[in-house]
Amino acid sequence: MTTYNVELATGQVALYERSGLVGWGITLVTGGNKSHAGLIIVDGGRHYVLDARKPYCDVRPISADVRHGARIKIARLPYGCEWDAAGLADFAYQIEGYAPYATRKMLRNAWTETFGVGSLPDPEGIPSRFMCSELVSCLCRLFASVDPCPTRPDRYTTPDDLDRKSSLVTVTDRLTLQEAAP
Prior knowledge:
CATH class: Alpha Beta
Number of strands: 6
Shape: globular
Number of domains: 1
CATH architecture: Alpha-Beta Complex
Number of helices: 6
CATH topology: endopeptidase fold (from Nostoc punctiforme)
Order of helices and strands: EHEEEHEHHHHE
Largest sheet: 6 strands, antiparallel
């Protein structure tokens, strides 16, 4: 079994530092150094990340990202927030591979972020397309009854907002794998 430098729990937020050209572009627009966000799901002792990446929402072992050198900060909601872990897992496996990534929405939000034009409130239900930080914010509201960035609608929440302007509490600044004892 894979072990980490911290104990991972369902509902923790994985915040990825920029990497590559797309990550650099995202951080250029948002002004931070986080370019991607996902939600941790622990199922049967295994650790997964649910996120929206082009082309679809995805559930995969977070160890794959760590092994590929991703710099991942782990944060959690404030104490006292209870997750509907079963509902979250059911939702994750229903949308995996089906909910498309919202490329047009990302471009529109970059415009809004840059020029400050327009804003829409949080939707009542679950959108049919997601961006990574929008997915995290929406799922926190729906499955833990907490809005991590109450001053920003889900669709305009960026990974940097989740990192610096939210109610999230840092668990570790960098997730690492622990070597098994011989």
